[in-house]
Write a structure and sequence with these properties.
The complex is a heterodimer. Chain A is mainly β. Chain A contains no helices and 11 strands. In chain A, strand 5 and strand 6 form a beta hairpin. Chain B is an all-beta fold. Helices cover 0% and strands 52% of the residues of chain B. The interface between A and B is medium-sized, with 28 and 23 residues.
Chain lengths: 113, 112
């Protein structure tokens, strides 16, 4: 069975640009969470979605947005990129919001120059 | 506000030796507690979790963790470390797995 897949795996952008990161959850998983992991730090929660509705948002500016599609895949969008947005962006899925086993993808490494 | 502290940034142990990774947390309510492992270039894998019940929790790969409410700690242990255990380990807390607060991790090096 396929795990959580994220695309692209690596991305280079310049300041001020926009980026879209994509995530396909494990088949049957309806909840997706996004995390940002800056080098040398632990992951920081950005968004959680369940059944296409936002179920939580971390302490990130409005430049960060996300959505979940009817097939439960998800996109994370970041506008007006800053150098500090350079990080590994991790997507994780689970069957429902009541299930406490979270499965992570390998992430998208974003570099902002 | 919730927070997680992993006091040891880097730990080195010899193969076959025992391991304990420390985790202290601050949280208003009784949270879920998790330990994850991350190998280079990989996402995180759940080792074990705790919410209630027996305070000694068994996980995958021979790991266990003990919850101590009085110390707000959730330390991870393994009796005998294998070279393949070399990785970064993260402790996390939250009211649910999808919105967890993570510590900054402990990097484990295993000496032959």
């Amino acid at each position: 069975d396929a795990g959580v897949t994220q695309s692209p795996t690596h991305l280079i952008k310049t300041r001020g640009q926009h980026v879209t990161l994509r995530c396909s959850p494990i088949s049957g998983h309806k909840s997706v969470s996004w995390y940002q992991q800056v080098l040398g730090q632990g992951p920081q929660f950005i968004f959680q979605y369940y059944e296409k509705e936002e179920r939580g948002r971390g302490n990130f500016p409005d430049r960060f947005s996300a959505r979940q599609f009817p097939n439960y895949s998800s996109e994370l969008n970041v506008n007006a990129l800053l150098l500090g947005d350079s990080a590994l962006y991790l997507c994780a899925s689970r069957e429902t919001v009541l299930n406490e086993k979270l499965f992570f993808g390998s992430g998208t490494q974003l570099s902002v120059l | 506000a919730q927070s997680v502290t992993q006091p040891d940034i880097h730990i080195t142990v010899s193969e076959g030796a025992s391991l304990e990774l420390r985790c202290n947390y601050s949280y208003g309510a009784t949270p879920y507690l998790f330990w994850y492992v991350q190998s280079p270039g990989q996402g995180l894998q759940l080792l074990l979790k705790y919410f209630s019940g027996d305070t000694l929790v068994q996980g995958i790969k021979g790991f266990e963790a003990e919850f101590k409410r009085s110390q707000s700690s959730f330390n991870l242990r393994k009796p005998s470390v294998h070279w393949s255990d070399a990785a970064e380990y993260f402790c996390a807390v939250g009211l649910n797995a999808g919105k967890s607060t993570f510590g900054d991790g402990t990097t484990l090096t295993v000496k032959p």
